[in-house]
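@channel sequence for tomorrow's demo:
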Amino acid sequence: MAVVGGLLLLPAQAWAGPEALPGGDAGTTAAQDPTAAVTPEASPSARRAEQWYETGEYAGPTYNCVGQYYEELGRAWAGWFGEIGVTPTTNQLYYVKAGWGVSGFPCGSGGARVHVEMVLPAYTKLAISQQNPVHCFYDGLNSDFHEIPNDCPQNPGTGWNGGPSFDPPGEAAWPTATGTLFEIWVPVKTTQPLNGIAPPDGQPCNTCLYVGAWMIDGNNSPWVYPKIPIYVAGSGGPAPDPSVNYPAPATGSLQYNTGLQMVTARLYANIFTEGTGGTAQFEMGNKEGEYNTQGEVINIPTGGNWQAYEDWGMNPGHLYHWRLCYKPTGGSKTCGADQTVNAPPETGIAAVKIKKPKRKATFFPSATGVPNMTTTFECRMDKGKFKPCESGEEGVTYSKLSKGKHTFSVRAVDQDGHADATPAKESFKL
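structure tokens (generated this afternoon):
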């Protein structure tokens, strides 16, 4: 572990992709014939390998009637498949997938019913046939992951979000018991290249596969929408060059490190090596194009597509620019597009005014916010809930307080919704 230029650098890693599924020897065939299928081997006995690229989102909460508390209802994920060292090309069949699982215990149901939809990327259509069907898998409470061919939908309907929906034949949703998992693999073809880059959150992603999972639990029945950008190379020309892009989201796990007074963020990036090997490095700086701090050198093995990550410590209340660069052995460095990460602000209390006879207290919060970005505050007194509070020249005032000890807490929130994980506190006695 080292601190360089105000940034905390933790060991960088590269791995072949989370929650991955195995592929056969289709990579050689695909390289010879760009119209051949790039297909995963439908074998639930070996679910972990490097060819699936996935991202997931949690759904919830649901209310646990037994324990009388709220908990996450479950999780859904989206993914696409590319052979080792070979990405799908235009007009080539490849697979996308939707997956979900229920982990919470909704009131009286023992699980949930899950309706599943997809919204395909631009220029992408279904390619379902007898030779390349939809595959469905189930991991039950008393069974391992196995294919369920009889109830797997081969004729999808139209979902509420405009894409195909994949409910079991004759049913409106999948019965999903607590502790079980499902996956649906769907063959598709794309007629134009996709760059695999997701725009900032809140903007439409034309290169992304969206999965919509409606988890009906008899209580909140939340929707969850995981998305993942897809990379499809052009065909008919020279082999594509190595490239770098990013999953969505590319920044995760923002945590405040009290020991070092820093916010730690995990940065992610995808490296499409196209059969090469080499090294990669994350780079970070204060401006786009000016990356004055480099992370650890990450060795990238030959013949695979990889996802790399590194944990960075940042000063609170600052906006940073970052990217990942990949240099194949004997080749030129290629870098992904500029990314930004906003470290949540650090909160303070500039002044306090206590008027004991009137049982009145006024506080003046402060924050180290990102310049040109709006910072707001949330306050609470004692063990109440955090609520928005305005801190102008008059401060934040509480009147008619009870006699005794009190604790005022305040946290700054940036315009992206990132709240200071360590609120400022002031204890006093009336």
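heads up for whoever presents: The chain is about 0% helix and 45% strand.
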